[in-house]
Specification:
Length: 722
């Protein structure tokens, strides 16, 4: 063998083993880098012309298991989804507490029922009255505060979602840039391994935020899709995600979906149309955040709203049939949304009494809505007088009846009925007929108008309007309501603009049922109590109506169409907002009504209410055992339960959801860790193996060096001979 051949062979061995040592050193240096793929050096014989001469590196292989890499992205997305949800469920658990805690809603309810019981025993105690009102206010504050905290948490989720979208845009841009660099390196024959590591790391970050599928391309680039095939990124376009966090987030806020605009990375021109992303997400932090924002938290807010509405409605139903001692001078109702021209639509019988400060009867107005064409009234047993058909007629009749004895007035304005006694030392109270109480939409005259409400709120506690379909709807022609139809999976499947037309409520319902609008999804009808009922059409079970905006106003009351009927989930969520003890009663505990009028045979001058009468307080005490009909709200179905049972059911439901999410998180975490372990075994660095390789390459390097030394000696010897 020629000496120069020996020298060339040895030199190639030196160079190859030096490069192998460099690769091995890089492997060792990245032993703890999760996105580093181990490199392996493959040697091959070097061809010199027709002969074999020395050694060269055939390929530096980047060890990647495509199956495990794909599975690692999938399991990471699943884990991060449930981990995100679990984080917020932990916060919810802390907010709600446990049923045995006094600060929880069930605990506060128990305290209120105990206070009502104590009030029934000590009805004439000012201290007990104050304590009862304080306990009730604590309960109402707890419900309202929780509702506000749930809304604040939704806002926090929405803000985090916006931040994640911003981070995703940066990651997509980085992948696009790395794609271009990898293609260029591959084209010119350079090794792009370090860029591939960077891209894998960025893709992993994307997978943590949303579930993706990676498709490798022949030129070395990758295309990204969602798991259901929604195109995200390719060499032709880069996605720009947009999610504007609402500036003012309230219970009824309908957030926008995440939109995707595809941009050509070179020309920066829009590629294709803007599309919504939400429905294509099944994993990652985004899916977890969307689930919390659009399902878990709104459902809890609806359940709390239903509880708050029933607490207010049931207490008010009793308190409106009670009377304080001495009776209050003024009874001021709430905005019912009614106008004077509406039919009063009351049935049954009730009595309005005017009593002196000492509890003696001054005058009585007996009202029988079932008598005559539209009801009749009589004053102090006098002749029957027709009431008339409308709410305005009813107000006029009450005013005439009170004024006829000089004992008061009745006014109706902006949907609010107000009764005033005269002189100021006199007071007012209602007592319902025991066999046929007055009723509109299932509520007595005083209760429907909220004349002696103990609990007030920012929204009505019920939407049984008592309206008949043939009545004038009172909304301006051309006024619009913007609806969003939400699919059970959380995505907004349609947006519909409803335009007011016609004159009657039946006309409104006909238009709502238009198959080219909301009628494609639901059918609407008016119940006997005047409640607008929506029934999903076949195939659209689980779809929800959301009110994006409402520009309607019912002339004379200022109430919108959606507000009048409680359309959309917004109003159910808001029924727990702003709950409080009636400020008038809170300012004077004597107005807490613990008595009931004694009007069986009473005439003017008889005592009809006394300080020691506890019949009204006993009715409040019995509320603890009353079975209440709750409507479907959030994740809780329609049911009959006591207030305490329903409150405990809310906590149980949230607890069950949290336990389920924790279980899914634990399972996803275990699977993710196992896949990551196997991925690391396949492509990660094994220190023992690398150290062994280093010894081999070092010895080979040394051997090559000795061979060069030997060749040098041979060459020197030959030269000396010459």
């Amino acid at each position: 063998m020629r000496v120069d051949t020996i020298m060339n062979n040895a030199l190639s061995a030196l160079q190859v083993n030096q490069e192998a040592l460099r690769i091995t050193s890089a492997n060792i240096a990245n032993v703890n880098s999760p996105d580093y793929a181990r490199r392996e050096v493959e040697f091959q014989a070097r061809a010199v012309g027709d002969a074999i001469g020395g050694v060269e590196i055939g390929e530096i292989k980047r060890i990647v298991d495509d199956f495990l890499l794909k599975e690692s992205l999938t399991t990471s997305s699943a884990f991060n989804r449930y981990d995100t949800e679990a984080k917020y469920h932990d916060q919810l658990q802390s907010l709600l507490g446990s049923p045995d805690q006094n600060s929880s809603v069930p605990g506060r309810l128990a305290d209120v029922m105990s206070a009502f019981s104590n009030f029934a025993i000590n009805v004439d105690s000012g201290v007990v009255r104050t304590t009862t009102l304080d306990e009730l206010q604590d309960l109402l504050n707890t419900i309202s505060t929780l509702g506000g905290q749930v809304t604040s948490m939704r806002s926090e989720v929405s803000r985090e979602l916006s931040q994640e979208v911003t981070a995703l845009n940066e990651a997509f841009e980085q992948v696009s840039e790395l794609n271009a660099k990898i293609v260029r390196r591959t084209t010119v024959g350079d090794d792009p391994a370090d860029l591939l590591d960077q891209r894998d790391a960025t893709v992993r970050q994307i997978a943590e935020k949303m579930d993706i599928e990676v498709r490798n391309q022949p030129d070395g680039s990758v295309n990204l899709f969602t798991r259901d095939g929604f195109a995200l990124l390719s060499s032709a376009f880069t996605p720009i995600l947009s999610y504007p966090h609402p500036n003012a987030f309230i219970a009824g806020t309908v957030p926008d979906q995440i939109s995707v605009t595809r941009i050509n990375p070179v020309s920066k021109q829009t590629f294709g149309s803007v599309e919504a992303l939400d429905s294509h997400l099944s994993g990652g932090e985004l899916r977890g955040l969307i689930n919390m924002r659009d399902d878990t938290l709104p459902a809890l807010a609806q359940s709390l709203g239903e509880l708050g509405a029933q607490v207010a409605d049931q207490i008010n139903a009793i308190h409106n049939n009670n009377v304080a001692y001495p009776p209050p001078e003024t009874l001021t109702g709430r905005n019912t949304g009614l106008v004077a021209a509406d039919a009063h639509n009351f049935s049954g019988a009730t009595t309005l009494a005017v009593a002196a400060a000492d509890g003696t009867l001054v005058s009585r107005i007996d009202i029988n809505f079932d008598a005559g064409a539209n009801g009749e009234y009589s004053v102090n047993g006098g002749p029957a007088v027709a009431i008339g058909a409308t709410v305005g007629d009813l107000q006029s009749a009450l005013n005439t009846a009170l004024s006829s004895t000089g004992n008061g007035t009745a006014t109706f304005s902006g949907g609010v009925l107000t009764l005033d006694a005269n002189p100021a030392s006199h007071g007012l109270g209602f007592l319902e007929d025991s066999t046929s109480p007055s009723s509109r939409g299932g509520r007595s005259l005083s209760h429907f108008f909220g004349l002696n409400d103990l609990v007030t709120g920012s929204q009505p506690s019920h939407f049984e309007t008592g309206i008949a379909g043939t009545e004038s709807h009172g909304f301006g022609a051309g006024q619009i309501v913007d609806f969003v139809i939400r699919h059970p999976d959380g995505r907004s499947s349609d947006t519909i603009t409803f335009t007011v037309a016609g004159t009657s409520f039946n006309d409104l319902i006909t238009d709502l049922n238009n198959p080219s609008g909301l009628g494609a999804y639901m059918s609407f009808s008016l119940s006997a109590s005047g409640e607008l009922v929506s029934t999903p059409n076949a195939g659209f079970e689980g779809f929800e109506i959301l009110v994006k905006g409402d520009g309607t106003i019912r002339s004379g009351s200022g109430v919108s169409l959606s507000g009048f009927f409680g359309l959309g989930t917004k109003y159910q969520m808001q029924q727990g907002d702003g709950l409080a003890v009636n400020p008038t009663i809170a300012g004077s505990s004597n107005l807490l009504a613990g008595a009931q009028l004694d009007l069986a045979t009473a005439v003017a001058g008889d005592v009809v209410v006394s300080q020691s009468d506890n019949r009204g307080a006993l009715a409040l005490e019995q509320l603890s055992d009353l079975s209440v009909s709750f409507g479907s709200a959030g994740h809780l179905p329609a049911q009959s339960a006591t207030l305490s049972e329903y409150a405990a059911g809310i906590l149980a439901d949230v607890g069950a959801q949290a336990a389920q999410v924790d279980s899914l998180k634990d399972n996803a975490q275990a699977l993710n860790e196992e896949v990551q372990r196997r991925k690391l075994e396949a492509q990660g660095v094994n220190m023992d193996e690398e150290l062994a390789n280093m010894i081999v390459y070092q010895e080979a390097y040394n051997a090559a060096a000795r061979l060069i030394s030997t060749a040098q000696e041979l060459l020197d010897e030959l030269l000396s001979i010459v």
